[in-house]
Amino acid sequence: xxxxxxxxxxxxxxxxxxxxxxxxxxxxxxGDIKSYAMLTAEAENIKQQILALQDTTSx
Length: 59
Prior knowledge:
This protein is mainly alpha-helical. Helices cover 80% and strands 0% of the residues. The protein has a domain at 29-59. The model has no long low-confidence stretch (mean pLDDT 92).
C-alpha cells in the first residue's frame, strides 16, 4: 500500500554515479590524477551496484 512512497534506489545511485564522474573530471582537469583514478574507481563500483539492482528488479 505504501510502495508508492518508497524512493527508487536506482535513481539515487544514478545521481551519485553522475556526481562522482563530475568530481573525477574536475580532479583530472586540475592535474590530480591520483584523485581522478580513485573517483573513477568509486564511480565504477556504483555503476556495478546499479546494474545489479536493475538485474534483480527486471527478473
